[in-house]
Design a protein that fits this description.
single chain; alpha/beta; Rossmann fold; GMP Synthetase, Chain A, domain 3; 4-stranded mixed sheet; 4-stranded parallel sheet
Length: about 600
Amino acid sequence: MSTTPELVTAAERRDGATPVHRHPQDPTLTGILRWTARHHGDRTACLTLGPDGTEKDRVTYGDLDLRARAVAAALRDTAGPGSRALLVLPPGLDFLTAFFACSYAGVVAVPVPSPDSPFGAQRLRDRLDGIVADCAPSVVLTTPELAGAGPDGHTVAGDIPKLVVRDVDVDSAANWRDPGSDGETVALLQYTSGSTSAPKGVVLTQANVTENLAALAGGLGENAGTSDDFTCVTWLPPFHDMGLAALLLPCFLGGRCVVMAPMTFLMNPLLWLRTVDRYDARFCTAPNFAYDLCVERISPEQRAELDLSRWKFALSGAEPVRAATLSRFAAAFAGSGFRSSAFRPSYGLAEANVYVSGSRRPRDVRVLRASTTALENRGTVVPAVADEPNRPLVGVGRLPANLRARIVDPETRRPCPDGHVGEIWLAGASVAQGYWGNPDATTATFGGRIADTGEGPYLRTRDLGFLQDDQLFVTGRTDDLVIVDGRNVHPQDLELTVEESHPAVGRNRVAVFGRPDGEVTRIGVVAEIARPYRVVDTTGTPSGDGEVSREELTRAMRNAVSQAHQVHVTDVALLKPGALPRTTSGKVRRSEALRLFLEGGLNAW
């Protein structure tokens, strides 16, 4: 038997698709871990860092396999095969153990944010209560601190039985019995982030997860590595699809994962890059805002201390990839050895597990400057001529051989001609089975069929984009489009313009929305003001350090949007730091921002 996953040959892929790594074991998470433990049992699988960067936990594949089987055996007392288990755990060893334990027990894992996470306790508590009501879990896998009632008397998930992962005796592994899971067994309910609607439980089978890991590994190319020299450093929350993939990919490849808490990164982004340097990480993935945050918060003197020359794969995904962000980061850290060729723009969504497309080779990273006029008026993709208003679009790579995409007019359900923007429809091995207990939403989202021919079913992503030379480009979302005088205006374009209108406006901290008012559309902007700026109401020149007048800010925003997009901003709200509503993965919740704006519920200056 081969001791490394095999790379699919060119004969197994279609033109323009990226290859797919195939694991020699059965298509289950259990099979992958047992195979890796058998062949690489002494190799480090995961290590967890504290807030100061010191190691807290380290586990080998052999020990991880043992711990997972022990917890799986303990699960039999409260959860039978097919029942759901909430994973209320911080990122790291306990979470990874619990996730694989669910697979070993045939139990459906439901990763959720912990109420003690730094994302707003009450909002997370409400989200958790909604998930409990939706999927009716039989057990909660958690920590000693969360197993009991908190200082306010609140108990995580109420009276549902709690199993403290770290308290399970590893000798219990001897009692484990194989539940007989296969590729069709449900492995995971991945709850959506809720950026545009209430979170829904995406049903993912064992094969869905392993096929997606295979596609992601193949998307990195032949040089991804299949041994302990493949190291991933991640701070992403594991209840988010991108964060979970960052934990599981090293296991698929037999590498190691170095984990830190999300708040550790947000408080000290320098530690993330120091960890990449310290552990010779090849692979990291993060949303666009993280790369901007590093540029903003890490000084030139601190950058000079870093060696990022061994960082080969810097994925950017989970939110729109901005060309300006990639350029800023590459320029800022060039002296640290970072190469712009390491960037791998990618695209994905929970309904397709996570990974849909990515740039496999450096030359695959493409930026197309499209005519704004053609995009807004006709939905066509035309390269901009000199001095014409343009929108830089970053290509998010090629699809793997186990997925296929169609660009479809969302209204007529007919394929769009080449060079036209439409809704991205997907089909293939990574596409989920539907939404848990929600047949109407499942039909609406996963039952897309081409008009006339009935071809399908397809996953309707609600994302807009186009294909060019086998590259996928994402332009926006159907839910967010603002129609102004017959033009389809993408809020992301306006948000970027607002960000650049004044230094007091925070990057990645703006939401733009449109709302009908009679026969016109009112354009609203809500923007967080970056520290150390403070908004003051004055008609003269502010006197204090960091003070900026409300009139100056609103005028700068309106003028910039008017000049760049010929759009008039009618409403402006200036928010205090942290006030812009976001999902737990960091995406701006435009619909929630609009609701709070109308209700006066925003924390504004």
